[in-house]
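Write out the 3D structure for:
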Amino acid sequence: MTNTEQDRWSRVKGRLRSSVGEDVYTSWFARMDLESVEQESVRLSVPTRFLKSWIQAHYAERVLTCWQAEMPEVHRVDLTVRTAMRCAAPAKEAPAPVDARRAERADGRPAPELRATAPVSASHDALGGSPLDPRLTFGSFVIGRSNTLAHAAARQVAEGRRGDAVMFNPLYIHAGVGLGKTHLLQAVTWAGNSGNERKVLYLTAEKFMYGFVAALKTQTALAFKEALRGIDVLVIDDLQFLQGKSTQAEFCHTLNALIDAGRQVVIAADRPPSDLESLDDRVRSRLAGGLVVEMSSLGEELRLGILKSRVAAARAHHASFDVPEPVLDYLARTITHNGRDLEGAINRLLAHSKLNAQPVTLEMAEREVRDLIRPQEPKRIKIEDIQRVVARQYNVSRSDLLSSRRTANVVRPRQVAMYLAKTLTLRSLPEIGRRFGGRDHTTVLHAVRKIEALVSKDAALSEEVESLKRQLQE
């Protein structure tokens, strides 16, 4: 490549940076390289299929326009992947042409056409990964007491290099809605792929299912499996949505193959592995064998930090936007549900301020976000907590509750614990039975009915049960 071509490429990148802004340029174009310049076409490359797909879908015309400003004779930009993920039968990644001569826009000027020049297999399509949000990086993640361990573990995974010993595998992060699971998983993916040394693939459970089913239909299941097992770091989000016996079996095989080969697996779900009732026991056992980390609800200090970070991000595009401290304090104190509500509150204030040309005030904030102020959710009670509290109350061990012992001093506490598990959690009778030493659901039903009957006529037992409920809900 000549110096002249490099100079032109530098000027094109400068035009692109000015056109889309620094943040967008850094997210999508910083790793784009010039491969060659021919008479009427330019060949560029990016390190991942996802980058290629995103640029083709959203910025193809912008890239072509910037080249034409430097070289009017250029009518096509070919975008390729430098290190495409290999499937079982590797094929060359065909460049997708951006050809200005193929179509015209409504205003008569030529428009780029994106055309797949080679068929893409179902397995290859699945390995394109699920879409990533460029905002969800470690840099934008706000750390607080509730997520410190999850953040540190995710960072450790992201900074690993090929050949390093895997410290915890799988890393399993669980939390309620809007507490930052997806942010951490996408941050791991962005950071892992930025070094371009390891192949990091981010898939939602839904995309994994779609990829597997599509591979079965097109008879490319073997290629799909082998391609998945060639990944260095597999990141699976929303595992609670994984459905179907064959899909779960394939996920189990993939999980085992990757872990046994020393590859890293990172998973997120809305509940711990033991509560994923729809999953096979083998999968739950393998998931629980790694590092399981819970991200708990956001404390007020962390909520305030998130609000400040969102205001700073908004100010990068709207310099005059300002939210006074009393408003931030009010939002942090009253919007307690999740991080998405906090972001929604800032977006509302920004829209109101910009569209009505008014400064943000406390009165405006109270009016605009009142529907986001939800009643505090009751504490999510776990069966393990019930067993622990009941065992302590009745001076028996947790293992006694799970055992087959039938002595009176164990039977009654066990029945109370089963009753509380049925009334205070959403777990099914079979799941409760399984968590109490593998008992049948009819045993649980008998215990629940027995305690219900006793509570209605035994004031002392009724008070004991109410006391246990209060302890568990504190």
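Residues 3-20 form the longest helix (18 residues).
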